[in-house]
């Protein structure tokens, strides 16, 4: 509709007085899309792509007798400062290196000399799923907002260890 003839006839005054629009001008409408893509992934300490976690925790075999021949087990005591969360269903894995004292197996080394004792790492409490060196090992979880890294250890004491503190440090890489 052409609005100019109506304006000349005083229709605007009537429209304002009655509250009705007396003039409808031609126009066009269009639409646009609004999208967001949410990607599956994980966060460590609330960071999407951290380069380092710091210390993941401690696997402590405790204090043992130098003469003990016991098999001692332990599990990773994950640091409370490390938080790991993933989108439900994300395939999460870990890769554990050989440690600092590897020689035909991961080894704890006495801090004041070269004495060592072999230990093994596992991804389950039954200690039936060994964690191989530098090989991806799947992590299963039921609570995607609070994932615990499943690392368990076992050491067979030889019965002739020199007294002292034995330790190793391994690097864990999380992948998703």
TrEMBL record:
Claim: ATP-binding is one of the keywords in the record: no
Among InterPro entries, the record links this protein to:
Adhesion_dom_fimbrial_sf (IPR036937), Spore_coat_component (IPR053167), Spore_coat_U/FanG (IPR007893)
Signal peptide location in the record?
Answer: 1-26
Q: Which domain of life is it from?
A: Bacteria
Q: Where is the Spore coat protein U/FanG domain?
A: 28-173
**Per UniProt, which keywords does this protein have?**
Signal
Which Pfam family is an annotated match for this chain, by its short name? SCPU
Q: What is this protein called in UniProt?
A: Fimbrial protein
Lineage of the organism: Bacteria, Pseudomonadati, Pseudomonadota, Betaproteobacteria, Neisseriales
